[in-house]
Amino acid sequence: MGAGTEPDGSSRSDEEWERFLRESVEGTADAPEEPSARAREVASRLRAEPDRGPDGRRGAPPGRPRRHVGRYAVGLLAASALLFVALAPGRVVDLVTGSGSSRPDARRPTAQDPFRGSPAAAWASGAAGITMPKQARAVGWMSAAEVDRALTRSRDFLVASSLDRGVLRGEHPERAIALINPHQKDVQHLLKTAFRAPGEKNDPLLLFSRFQPARAHLVGDVVKTRGALTYREGERGALQVTADVTFVYPVAPTGGDDEILRTIVRRELVLSWDDPDKVHTEPGTFSVTSYKYDMTNGGCGTPTGYFVPPFGPGRHADASGEEVDPYDRDTPFGRSGPAGDECGRATRS
Question: What pTM was computed for the model?
Answer without folding.
Answer: 0.69
